[in-house]
Amino acid sequence: MNSDFTLAIHSLTYLALQPDRMSTSDGISESAGVHPVRIRKVLSLLKKHGFIKSKEGTGGGFIFNLDLCEVNLWDIYMITSEGALQPKCPDSNEECIVGANMKRVLFTIFLGAEQYLGEYLKNYTIKEVVDLVNQEQNSGCD
Amino acid sequence: MNSDFTLAIHSLTYLALQPDRMSTSDGISESAGVHPVRIRKVLSLLKKHGFIKSKEGTGGGFIFNLDLCEVNLWDIYMITSEGALQPKCPDSNEECIVGANMKRVLFTIFLGAEQYLGEYLKNYTIKEVVDLVNQEQNSGCD
DNA sequence: ATTAACTGTAATATTTATTATTACACTATG
DNA sequence: CATAGTGTAATAATAAATATTACAGTTAAT
User: Fold this and answer.
1) Cys staple from A68: which of A83, A98, A110, A127, with CB 3.0 to 4.6 Å?
2) What share of chain A in percent tops pLDDT 90?
3) Which residues of B touch A103 (CB under 8 A)?
4) Contacts of B2 (CB under 8 A, 6+ apart)
5) Cβ(A88)–Cβ(B120) under 8 Å?
6) What's one GO MF term for it (chains A, B) (predicted)?
């Protein structure tokens, strides 16, 4: 699975646990173990869709903008990874009935698969992810 | 999606349309637009699980070994791509509650997602794929 | 008003994953 | 015994993901 998706989940969960202050891309990137620029890229998508707010300058950062229950994993998937389930078929042989039609058939099947998966992902809101993270907590941030 | 999965589907569909003679990895690879060695690798998995038979030497090749209705896309997924939905999380910060627990939480969620997707994939047998390929046929092999 | 701490984003470099290629042992057929 | 195949490992090439660098813009604090 596309890691923009999981980074978005990670970031939102992080923000969910810091509801009262802004978090920086540096802080989130340390938590997630990736480069801060990547975090900013992912968060810029989430901001564009209104899930978070950001503020530039000293004391700035990112903060959740919605209720935790309003954001589910399907929303996040659609923003970060729509179509990611589709296989990248090489150009196959158009002179073979299989080669000529497989791409179209697979596209249809995987489109359905994505829709189907959506029903599963809709069952998880960030609230639920936060609860799962809290369940067996190993240690805490500062 | 893992392309071993789609190559396996492609190959099996190809074999399904040649039920009376053996097909070579060269033939399949031309249809699918990939290297014959890759086809042989994928088919070697399918053989190990009894979906196809193979024969070495002159006049050898691959041939379907089961009824088309007995093989569904979930079977093929499990053989070629089990776990492929799992994101590859970088090592995150164990001293942050999010970093310390996210991997486990995501693992659980994506495990469920894979199981869920399985129900969808079980609905497609190779027979159905063959039918879809035949539906809007552009042209035929030899 | 200047510095420091941020976001935003593009361009480039690096790393990793996928895929192709080569090589060759083995098997069967004619 | 030559030819047409599979089986599989090792390596090379390519493509994709990720990190890094660079820098413009914003805000707060001194």
Assistant:
1) A127
2) 83
3) none
4) A87, B80, B81, B84
5) no
6) DNA-binding transcription factor activity
Nearest nucleic acid nucleotide to B55, CA to C1' distance: D6
Q: Are B80 and B2 in contact (CB under 8 A)?
A: yes
Looking at residue A105, its amino acid is V
Alpha-carbon distance A74 to nearest alpha carbon in chain B (angstroms): 12
What's the whole-model pTM score?
0.91
Which residues, 6 or more positions from B37, have their beta carbon under 8 angstroms from its beta carbon?
Answer: B25
What is the sign of the dihedral through the CA atoms of A100, A105, B109 and B122? negative
Contact B99 A33 (CB under 8 A): yes
Segment B80-112, tens digit of pLDDT:
999 999 998 888 787 788 877 999 999 999 999
Give the distance, in angstroms, between the CA of residue B90 and the centroid of all CA atoms in the same chain: 27
Task: Give the strand pairing for B52-55 and A61-64.
Answer: unpaired
Half-sphere exposure of B41 (CA within 13 A, CB side): 10
What is the domain partition of chain B in residue ranges? 3-139
Q: Which residues of chain B have pLDDT under 70?
A: 137-142
Class of domain A3-139: mainly alpha
One-character DSSP codes across A58-87 = TT-EEEE-S-GGG-BHHHHHHHHHTTTTS-
Q: Which residue has the tokens 């899930």?
A: A51
- Cα separations in angstroms, A33 against A110, B92, B99: 31, 5, 8
Beta bridge partners of A23: A62
The two tokens of residue B1 are 């999606």
A100 vs A14, residue with greater confidence: A14
- Among B23, B102, B104, B115, pick the best mutation site for testing chain A contact (most A Cβ within 10 A): B102
Structure tokens at B81: 């791509």
